[in-house]
Amino acid sequence: MSSRPAPTASTTTADDASDRLGLVMRGVSLRHGNAAETVQALDNVDLTVRPGELAAVVGPSGAGKSSLLAVAGGLARPDQGTVTVAGQDMTVPSRRTRTELRRQHVGFVFQSGNLLPALTAADQVRLPLRLGSRSQRSGRDPLELLADVGMADKSDRRPHQLSGGERQRVGIARALVTEPSVLLVDEPTAALDRARSHEIVRLLAHEARQRSVAVVMVTHDHDVLQYCDTVYEMVDGKLATSS
Amino acid sequence: MFLAIRELNFARLRFALMGAVIALIAVLMVMLSGLSVGLVRDGVSGLQNLPVTSFAFAQDVQRDSAFSRSVVDMTAVDEWADQPGVADATPFGNTLVNTRTDRGTEVDLALFGVQPDSFLSPPVSQGDRLGTEDGIVVSPTALDAGLQMGDVVTIDRLGTRLRVVGVTEQQDTFGHVDVAYVPLAAWQAIKSGTAPGTALPQRAATEITAVAVRAADGKSVDLAAGDTAAGTESLTLKESYGASPGYTAETTTLQLIQGFLYAISALVAGAFFAVWAIQRKPEVAVLRALGASTGWVLRDALTQAFVLLAAAVAIGVGVGLALGALITGSGIPFALSMPSISAAGVGLVVLGLVGAGAAVIRITSVDPATALGGNR
Ligand SMILES: Nc1ncnc2c1ncn2[C@@H]1O[C@H](COP(=O)(O)OP(=O)(O)OP(=O)(O)O)[C@@H](O)[C@H]1O
Ligand SMILES: [Mg+2]
């Protein structure tokens, strides 16, 4: 189905070609705040996530984990460094261009789903396909995708009629429908119990491998790290490989 | 459209409440429009139906009461008839009188004194045109007021008797009073207070209210030059409406109320969508993070506002028209005019959109990074 190469997580030597298809961040720094008070949210961050790889980022609150995802997805521009997604520069000044790149190459999964209250599960998944112009409306079949995440029988329910775990599944389906190169996931299990958390992360790992998507998952939940290929730790804006 | 329609459906009750307010404003707008068209018709339809392009009144006459105050000498008529571009000029006299029929019915009439062989002599829908010395042609609305063909009316105090010989083709009213066309000579006698049987004073026979001027087809008349030559002060037919009793006060009051309604509509829509936009901020952040451009979000929000406003105004206008149909013909000056109602409806939608637009524009400043958990 996908034209992308097979997962490369098992490759030991760096494969430049497949690197570029995932997420590459080099020397990325980001400061928040004004002249009087600044916070170094990201401090010279290097990160490579290949297609099919599930990378976890852990760290204390305020360490800069969400900032990392914001920069990776072009929601914020770093003060320094380069970010590419599927070979595309995500740090261009034009907000419009970054939005366009995000729509085509990036999927976001948020804490507690962040679904739109007015939409049914099926419409939540259809929505990203409607954000571009008519000619760009290619992607996966929303209903098939809902079935893949185990939500086939609840496709016409609205968010308030779904449990936290179900919302998160819909959120994942919504992020995958445009066939993104990179999936950015912020604390997907924060609102879930242990069993649900495992299910969700297993689903993410499965989709990442199945579809060759580079996944970055921020989590506080050390329980689910077993499903991840790489684990990074973030402290005071600095990113390091976790032992 | 995708999201806009689904949100309208999802938050039905909230949008319905807002729509109801706009619909009520639209009902009010139709009523006001009907009232103002009705009042204008009641106030100046007698003038509107005249085949006249301008009136030459006395010099320095007070403009808002020119018809009752102006006195012009007959010689001005010939002077005006000779002006370039003028097809015809004829004397015009105007007075309000209280009359009583032999049956005892009291009828107020706005007398239009015209020469029976002039272009001002009105066509009739029944009876005869002006001709006999004491024959008058009245507006059909005078029949509703209790007058009948062949009635003889007596003017209060003066005792002059006039006979209804004909009825004009359409409503002719002036200052909310039914118009009666009367031969100029009879008008001059009435205006000068000359009792029946008494000779008309020399001076009264030369005095008229204004010169009615009709420009030749496609020609324009230099009013200033004519005024200088004839020693008069001209008002175009439209300008002369303002000289009819109460006209300016009534129309400005209604226009003021309509203006306020437009402003209220814009403010109501603005306030509603401002609250809506603030509530939607987290959602908009998510949409932006998913790759929606600000243009997409704005288009969606404005589509939503437009659908809501258009539906509400359509319902309101519908209800207004139904109510208006009940009122029409009940004696209240009320007339439904589709062009003016459509204009008011479009105006409401447009101003509502302006208000909504000013409110939803703030969603463009939403930082999509706030969609991420940590920053909320
Ligand atoms: N818009 C902003 N303006 C100013 N400071 C900000 C802004 N966003 C984040 N910060 C600061 O940047 C630092 C990193 O924030 P970030 O949200 O990335 O942390 P996090 O690791 O995601 O924390 P958490 O685990 O609580 O979600 C924090 O000190 C935070 O206060
Ligand atoms: Mg965070």
Question: Tags for this entry?
Answer:
heterodimer, A: 243 residues, alpha/beta, Rossmann fold, six-stranded mixed sheet, four-stranded antiparallel sheet, 7 helices, 30% helix, disordered N terminus, B: 376 residues, alpha+beta, six-stranded mixed barrel, two-stranded antiparallel sheet, 48% helix, binds adenosine-5'-triphosphate, binds magnesium ion
What report would you give on this structure?
The complex is a heterodimer of chains A (243) and B (376). Chain A is of the alpha/beta class. Chain A has a single domain, classed as 3-Layer(aba) Sandwich (Rossmann fold). Helices cover 30% and strands 25% of the residues of chain A. Chain A has helices at 16-21, 65-72, 95-105, 121-130, 142-148, 164-176, 194-211; strands spanning 23-33, 38-49, 54-58, 80-85, 88-89, 106-109, 182-186, 214-218, 230-235, 238-241. In chain A, the strands form two sheets. A six-stranded mixed sheet of chain A has the order 6-7-8-3-9-10. A four-stranded antiparallel sheet of chain A has the order 2-1-4-5. In chain A, helix 4 crosses helix 5, helix 5 crosses helix 6 and helix 6 runs parallel beside helix 7. Chain A is globular, with a radius of gyration of 17 Å. The N and C termini of chain A lie far apart (35 Å). With 376 residues, chain B is α+β, with helices and mostly antiparallel strands. Chain B has two domains: 2-44 and 248-371, no CATH class; 60-230, no CATH class. Chain B has twelve helices and 13 strands. In chain B, the strands form two sheets. A six-stranded mixed β-barrel of chain B has the order 3-4-10-6-8-7. In chain B, strands 2-11 form a two-stranded antiparallel sheet. In chain B, strand 3 (86-101) and strand 4 (106-114) form a beta hairpin. In chain B, helix 1 (2-10) crosses helix 11, helix 2 packs antiparallel against helix 9 (247-279) and helix 11 runs antiparallel to helix 12. Classes of the chains: A alpha/beta (243), B alpha+beta (376).
